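Sample entry follows:

:::
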Amino acid sequence: MAESNYENPAPTIEGCIRKESKAQETLYKAYFGYALSVALLYSNSRDEAVETVDDSFMKVFSEIARFDPAQSFKGWLRKIVINTAIDRIRKNSRNRLLQEELPDWIPNDTPSAESNLSAGEIAAMLGNLPHIHKTVFCLFDIEGYSHEEISKKLKIPESTSRVYLTRARKRMRELYEFNFNHKPVRL
């Protein structure tokens, strides 16, 4: 897709409103990578994240007529991806208990302490958190949701949200220290 359409998706969105499959395909291809990067924050695996993205685009295509062109399409899509991921978390939590066990060991295949942390390194550290901790951490520290909003989204008490965030931050500090042999840092 042309770069100009990526920055101004209005013509493609209009095609999607008319249910044009070519426009839907164009929108999907243009925003798949972005949606996947968001979904990966809330998923246990790439396959799960891809399923979240696919489900999110189904919602986008069914609700696209409600999109307000005065808003950012990426922001609207991000909210849909996050809500879809949270729906998957809720659905999965009904089928199994939320596990809080950490792996016995964490591979140390990251660069030296002298290098800056990349998004991939941060994502790898997040991947070592229990799923519910990672979700609360991302919602609070990355997305800026309050504990009240998180408790409503995940259907957990606010106090539980706070506990999960505290545990996630503590574990992220431990992972950082372990992988980068630095003095403790405050996240």
Observations:
- The domain at 100-187 is CATH 1.10.10.10 (Arc Repressor Mutant, subunit A).
- The two ends are 39 Å apart (CA to CA).
- Residues 35 and 91 are 20 Å apart (CA to CA).
- Confidence is low (pLDDT under 50) at residues 1-5, 97-115.
